[in-house]
Amino acid sequence: MPLPRTRGKALRQRLAELRGPDVPAKALDARALAALAANPGCRRRAILDGAGVNKAAVASALGSPSVFGQSQFAFTRGNAFEAKVKADGGAELLRLVHEKLDRRAEPPADAQVPDLSAPGPEGRAARTALALREATAAAGNWTLLDHPMLALDVAGSPAFLEPDAVVVHPDGSWTVVEIKSFPMLDGSADPAKVGAAARQAAVYVLALEEVAARLDPAPEVRHRILLVCPKDFSNLPTASAVDVRKQRAVTGRQLARLTRIEDIADTLPEGTCFSPELPAEELTSAVESVPATYAPECLSACELAFHCRDRSRAAGAVTSLGRSVRAELGGLTTVEEVLSAAREETGDPEDPAVMALRRAARLRAEALQNCGPQVPADATTGGTGC
């Protein structure tokens, strides 16, 4: 539900203040949204992404630079492959869509490729919505939308997303196309990379569904997307249909759980700013004013992960050991609490987590007692063994 004009303007002004004077907003893309949806309890990431803060620059200013991201070589190779796939008006791309997703339709010939250029992301999103409506009304034709712009409401703040392509089928249904530069060997690709692409495509599907809901009748947004990759070790394109219904459901549910950006902004101290140009102490204080929910999975998804990990370890938080461990420990939130409960110094004896810890401690003590003669300390760990 979009914000009223006055509230929306006030929120945009507040978010601009959080970025810092004259600092341009960093666009929130589908990859970042998928990562945000995977950790909806992290208010820190929600407000920084919502405000368009460059988290990589902030991490470097805090002394904990991120080390992940696409190399320039991979970026160039990906652009070259995408251009090859879309050459000749997207003939090869549409052939793959027809072959993998819609064999019953007439083969694509003389497909429409509308011009989607317009000033600003809002203008491009409006132009995309118009092109989708026109293509859907022109039943019987194939239409390829090259880098359309979609808008998705995320915690009360609009995010503008740009999929590689969207295809409108002759029956009026819509398909998201993801073009990746990782290879498909013998018809299959790296499952981790396919999973990441599916989560990213699920965000586009959600955004397309918002556009479709405004049309009457609403066209079908297909939940099987087309993933296009290089074939084996060549530069020839091949494709696979990927069902993203599960990823779409999970992502939609997690995005709905996000605290509204304006609610988080209202809790921040007056004058809070996340500009990387601030002195390190001031920037650290601003970042720490927003609670984070760190987990080891953040290391592959968030630029601030190393900073948050250091803080989590310093606080002895069990979340630094992983979400599965955190879930098993119930109300025990720090390592010290866990050890104290295991030593029977604190904790409710009827708590299942406390009971399990104490039983594990007793079993360990018995194992060490019955271990037999001691051997010299391990040179690598400094401990003793049996």
Structure description:
This protein is of the alpha+beta class. The strands form 2 sheets. The chain has a 5-stranded mixed beta sheet with strand order 1-4-5-6-7, sandwiched between helices. The chain has a two-stranded antiparallel sheet with strand order 2-3. The N and C termini lie far apart (about 65 Å). The N terminus is likely disordered.
Say how many strands there are: 7
Residue share in helices? 40-55%
Given helix and strand content, the structural type is alpha+beta
Order of helices and strands: HHHHHHHEEEEEHEEHHHHHHH
Radius of gyration computed on alpha carbons: 25 Å
User: Reading side by side through the largest sheet, how are the strands ordered?
Assistant: 1-4-5-6-7
Give the overall shape. globular
SS element count, helices: 15
Strand content: 5-15%
Mean pLDDT equals 86
**Beginning-to-end CA distance, first to last residue:** 64 Å
Question: Which regions are unreliable across 5 or more consecutive residues at pLDDT < 50?
Answer: 1-6
Q: Profile the largest sheet.
A: 5 strands, mixed
Question: What is the topological layout?
Answer:
Elements: H1 5-19, H2 30-38, H3 43-50, H4 55-61, H5 72-85, H6 87-101, H7 120-137, E1 143-146, E2 150-154, E3 157-161, E4 165-168, E5 174-179, H8 191-213, E6 224-230, E7 237-243, H9 245-257, H10 261-267, H11 280-288, H12 305-314, H13 323-328, H14 335-342, H15 352-369
Parallel strand pairs: 5-6
Antiparallel strand pairs: 1-4, 2-3, 4-5, 6-7
Helix pairs in contact: 2-8, 2-9, 8-9, 14-15
